[in-house]
Amino acid sequence: MSQVLEPYIYEGGIHKHGLILELLEDIGGYLVQKTPAATEVTLIMLIPKDDVPLVEDLAKKLLGKVTRAPLTGVEIAVVSPTLAYHHLPHSACDIAEHLRRDGANTNMIGLARGMGRRVANLNNYEGRLINEHDIALYSFGIFRDCIKTKKMKLFEGINIPIIVTGGPEIATEEVPGSDLYIGNIGRIPHRMRKSDELDALDTMNKKVGELIDSIRDDLSKDPLVTIPARVMKEVHEQVPAINKVLTPSPITLQLDGLRIKLPYDEYKSKIHHIEFDEGFILGDIANISPSNMKNYILVKIKRESDIGFSI
Amino acid sequence: MEPLEKFIVESEVDSEAQSYKMVMEDIISDLNVLSSIGRIYVSVRPKESVFVMAIILRKSFSPIELQDFAEVNIELSDKKKIVLSVKSEKYLPKTLELLWSRYGKHNILQPDRRTIKIICEDPHKEIEYIKSLVIDDPQTTLKSKLLELSIRAAPEGFRVRNQQFFDSKFLFVASEENIETHWIEEAKEMLKKLEEA
Predict the structure, then answer these.
(1) In this predicted structure, what is the pLDDT of residue A2?
(2) Which of the residues A86, A119, A153, A169 would you substitute to probe the B interface, choosing the one with the greatest number of B C-beta atoms within 10 Å?
């Protein structure tokens, strides 16, 4: 990759935020997500590393705030055993919200039959849906025995990295099937706002960030042909229908691809034929398939070793 | 949360019992039943797949009749109307609902917020019925709240449940497996301990 991109979040007033977007375009950065809320706006961006001070200076002038968002460009499935009161809205939603603060895109997945010890299971569709994400984060309860011996049935068929949150302090090795265990976030039926609860969530974000860094390291050994943000930019320019999609993030970036929230049957051909200046089309460098989430389009970018070159 | 007279939560691991106590506290305050519950004893053992709870209530509540919060008379000018002067608006929606269902909306007049007039054929016969009409039964409300509390408090997978109400006592056993009789006996023992405490 010719330039290293750093993920940042800009939070500030909507007034003159266009200047940030113009600067971002000039320096060759990417806007991942823009969330306007009344007079405020949140921009999630990928900025070339050397030019970060330029954006910071401009943000200062606009009285906005730029913070690093290490989870940008990652789609995380926050899996709760069911959608019942026992898990939602706290603590599963609090976990998802905290991950989003660092730039991650999260999808809440409530399993149909994930509760209990003997009867807990994961059905085929749920498994396929979870596998479309970069990381699965399971939010479990407070009983050590359940987490260590019973709940791993919910990991069957999942081939993406698995993070588990729960109440007790347990070593990751003691939770079979998981890549990372994070304690002190168990069953909490109130909004997590006490200092120790927020500390636990901060620790979670830090550990998830470390796991993502290690996944990125693995990925860099055999890099993608192009970065997902570049594909996103081309989709925005060549498929205007994406600008009319009303979901919060019409294109969701993943570590090795992206989810485009347009109907597959109608737009598969347009997406397939997206052209790159370098002289090839998206269909050549990515696998385009229907997503298990609604009828969206899932694009997984091929590796350099598959194609023989990278952009 | 104001203190309960007795609040015991037991589990196989002490730290888990402490966490569960916090969960129980949240649920009790969410459901607003703190003033009704006097003593509570919970034992949860995930390895054995059992959740046992015993509760002693603070006091029993009698049903609220219409005459407890309203004056009921026959209107002097029109002998086919019964007039209610409501002192507390708390029960007004429920009262109207019950009266509408018995007499029909067109026979219930409400000239001002606290006055209700009922048009009926035989007010002398109806007036006794209306006076003793049960508008709210805190005991029933409390029972449903206790059941809600139990379902929320027990681990979600424990879908086989057994509950027993006595005057001011409540027992609840839940499990993922068939309920064993000795668990119910255990709940009764826990109730005894609470009574002695």
Answers:
(1) 55
(2) A86
Q: Which of A82, A118, A188 sits opposite B176 (nearest CB)?
A: A118
Residues of B in Cβ contact (< 8 Å) with A186:
19
How much of chain A exceeds pLDDT 90, in percent?
86
CB contact under 8 A, B152 and A86: yes
Q: Which residues of B touch A168 (CB under 8 A)?
A: 13, 15-16
Residue showing tokens 């729960």: A166
For chains A and B, CB pairs below 8 A equal 60
Q: Does B195 touch chain A (CB under 8 A)?
A: no
Q: Cα–chain-centroid distance for residue A18?
A: 25
CATH architecture assigned to B6-60+138-196: 2-Layer Sandwich (3.30)
Does A145 sit within 8 Å of B47, measured CB to CB?
A: yes
Distance between CA A80 and CA B8 in Å, rounded? 29
CA-to-CA separations, A241 to A211, A244, A287, B183, B195, in angstroms, rounded: 35, 5, 21, 62, 69
Give which of A191, A81, A66 is closest to A137, Cα–Cα: A81
Structure tokens of A163? 């993070």
Can you tell me whether residue B92 is helix, strand or coil?
helix
Name the phi and psi angles at B45, rounded to 5. Answer: -130, 90
Q: Which long-range contacts (CB under 8 A, 24 or more apart) does A201-207 make?
A: A201/A94, A201/A95, A201/A98, A202/A98, A204/A95, A204/A98, A204/A99, A204/A165, A205/A70, A205/A71, A205/A98, A205/A99, A205/A101, A205/A102, A207/A163, A207/A180, A207/A182
Cross-chain Cβ contact B26/A189 below 8 Å: yes
The answer to whether A84 contacts B156, with C-beta atoms less than 8 Å apart, is yes
Q: Taking residues A224-245, what's their average pLDDT?
A: 94
Residue in B with minimal Cα distance to A121:
B157
Give the model confidence (pLDDT) of B24-78 as tens digits: 999 999 998 888 899 999 999 999 999 999 999 987 678 899 999 999 998 888 7
CATH architecture of B64-136: Alpha-Beta Complex (3.90)
Asked whether the whole model's pTM tops 0.95, one would answer no
Do A143 and B176 make contact, defined as CB atoms within 8 angstroms?
A: no
Q: Distance from B37 to chain A by nearest Cα, in Å? A: 20
Q: Where are the domains of chain B?
A: 6-60+138-196, 64-136
| A94-110 pLDDT tens trace | 999 999 999 999 999 99
